[in-house]
Amino acid sequence: MDFDDRPGPEEPFPYPLNITREDFADVALFDPDEFLFKNHRYTSLDSLIADLRSLSKSLNQDLLDLVNNEYTNFIELGQSIGSCLELIDNLSVEVCKFKASLGQTFVDFSESSATAKAILQHKRSLNLLKNKIKVILLLHEQCISFETLLALDVADLSPGRLDMKLHTLTTLHLSIGKMYALIIESNLANTETCQFFDNVVKTKVLTLKFEFKLYLDELLVMARSRSQEYRNLILSILQTYRILGMSSEAVQTLRNKV
Prior knowledge:
Pfam families: COG2_N. One of its GO terms (cellular component) is Golgi transport complex. The chain is an all-alpha fold. It folds into two domains: 18-122; 152-256. It is built from seven helices and no strands. The longest helix has 66 residues, at 85-150. The N and C termini lie far apart (147 Å).
């Protein structure tokens, strides 16, 4: 780059200038040659060197002062934190204790929850067993009622009485059958057994089914022999056979007695 160092006709009289910090302010792209030519081309080299050394020394001192000030602040910060270390340590101990307590509480809660579930399950089992016992006792009572009614007024052969007795026996028989099936299904779902049901009630139910079948056969034969008098009773008997799913047995009974 060529520079013409001769002053122009309109330029002021040249005189040397000192280099200051303000000369470098707000300079995006610094070009040393252009800077020296425009501002200090009439300044001697020794003066430029002296100014730059003075600026360098001033900058170094400013940097040292800045570091010292920040270091002082850093030391003060460290001292302030040091006074809090004991508090932080105490808080850490308390947090660890709380964490351990929380863990134990969780264990206790889990154990309590498991115990509560076991108790509820046991309560459900007891309720099921209680209801099952009630059904077995009711079934036993109905079996006794069936036996009592079956043996009641055997000599009374009036059509109205026999029809009413048949209707009641059929109702009891159906009820006994449903409760018996319910208990058998419950026994299949659970391993618990009831000695009273197995040894007493179950045998009684099976016996009653056979006795009712025998009663129907005898009643049908008797009514068939006096069909005019027991016409409605015969229809009731056949209806009972059909309800019990034994229509073929009714036909077989009639054939055997012909």
